[in-house]
Amino acid sequence: MLTYPDSVRFLYALGNEIKTAKLGLDRIRLVLAALNNPHHSFRSIHVAGTNGKGSTCAMIEAGLRTTGIRTGLFTSPHLIEPTERIAIDGMPVTPRQFERAFDAVHKAATELDLDCHPTYFETVTAMGFWLFREMHVETAVVEVGLGGRLDATNVLNPILTAITPIDFDHESFLGGTIEAIATEKAGILKPGVPSIFARQRPEAQAVLDRRAAELKIPVKHTSEFQVRDLQVTARGSEFSGIKCPLAGEHQIENALAAALALEALSISPKGIENAVWPGRLERISPNPDIILDGAHNPAGARALARYLERFYAGRKIWMIFGAMRDKSVDEIAGILFPLTSHVILTAPDNARALRPEALAELTDHGGVAPDIAAALERARLEVSEDDVIVITGSLFLVGEARALSYNKHSWPFSGAWSS
Questions:
Q1: Helix or strand or coil: residue 411?
Q2: For residue 391, what is the enclosing H or E element?
Q3: Residue 415 lies in a domain
Q4: pLDDT tens digits for 337-377?
Q5: Mean pLDDT across the chain, nearest whole number?
Q6: DSSP state string for 263-293
Q7: Cα angle vertex 362, ends 359, 365, to 5°?
């Protein structure tokens, strides 16, 4: 059996599964069959979308768990450790549990006649389902990784599906139009299985409604929800007796989707108030305020911009920004950089990261730092306590900042962790 560090290294060595293996469900089905189909041992709720699917999953899971249901939660990517991708009753699995699951899946895969080893995502998906069975999960909330139709999680036979707002992202794999992307997301819909649809662009809505009609799916739309007594603060919102603890106006739509999902299962949405979803408009330190937000596509950038304009107007904004090469960096920068007083360009420690020097032409009030630690140290030398530092552009960068903040010897600010 490989140790936890060894299993993580093996997974990382598999590389970018999108490039190294053909998309499809054949491999994951064979592996799961060899494991005696663990995904048939629990009820599941399957969630796709472009932005907000992870937040929506976290809120649905919190609602289920609050009622005493033993829950599983499968999400991606992780911020610090791969164990975060698989949670039981609101807690990430332990390294020991992770390595046991890896050993079971890896052993099954190597004994099969496959075209290649299951990809990183396929392997972790099978590990999550195996652990949910081993740990007697009753209901799992499962986030789609990429698209939906050919995503490894689409082997599930869910009791409910949900589709959060669809926008542009991963166009090279999902298609260059909203209609094409929506068609891939709609691939999780199953005949007769109820679904929740968040508010969509008209062209995405048309695709989803047409597919739902073909499959004779009962659908509830968040646009039908009567929102009453809405209150929005920098730390969350409250409406119609529901408390959403996740910051940002866009989380209201995600909370609506979660509430409708829970109500479809005859469960009160009150438990949404117990949801935790780090790295998304997460304030981790005061004086100056330091905010983490994994805005890695234009829709996410627009949500971050609205938040900053509403709650940090008139304050000096420093932005530490790093991105992946396959993202719409020009558009994201055009949305965010005009709101800032100073931009520090950097890169997460990832082979797909865009080097900060390549971003320099996108701003006339920026500088370059080789990594997140250097970027934070540079900011520390110049910011005042009334300023705000926003770390964004990539969830990988956000994860590195979050990990750094746990180490008081490495964290260059005196403010205590406050999230």
A1: coil
A2: strand 388-392
A3: no
A4: 999 999 999 999 988 899 999 999 999 898 999 999 999 99
A5: 94
A6: HHTT--GGGGGG---TTSSEEEETTTEEEEE
A7: 105
End-to-end CA separation in angstroms for the chain: 37
Same domain for 262 and 374, yes or no, is no
Is position 231 within any domain? yes
* Parent domain of 290: 282-405
Q: What is the dihedral of CA 209, 214, 220, 223, to 10 degrees?
A: 10
CA distance linking residue 411 with residue 124, whole number of Å: 31
CATH classification at residue 105:
3.40.1190.10
The total of structural domains in the chain comes to 2
* φ and ψ at residue 140, rounded to 5 degrees: -110, 140
Q: What is the CA radius of gyration of the chain?
A: 21
pLDDT tens, 25-64?
A: 999 999 999 999 999 999 999 999 999 999 999 999 999 9
Task: Enter the tokens of residue 227.
Answer: 């929102």
What letter represents residue 245's amino acid? P
Same domain, 20 and 116: yes
Work out the percent of the chain whose per-residue pLDDT is above 90.
Answer: 85
What pTM was computed for the model? Answer: 0.95
Q: Where does the pLDDT of residue 416 fall: very low under 50, low under 70, confident under 90, or very high at 90 and above?
A: very low
Query: Would 419 be classed as within a structural domain?
Result: no
Q: Kindly write down the DSSP assignment for every residue of 361-378, as one continuous string.
A: GG-SSEEE-SSHHHHHHH
- Which long-range CB contacts under 8 A does 230-234 form with residues at least 24 apart? 232/310, 234/283, 234/307, 234/311
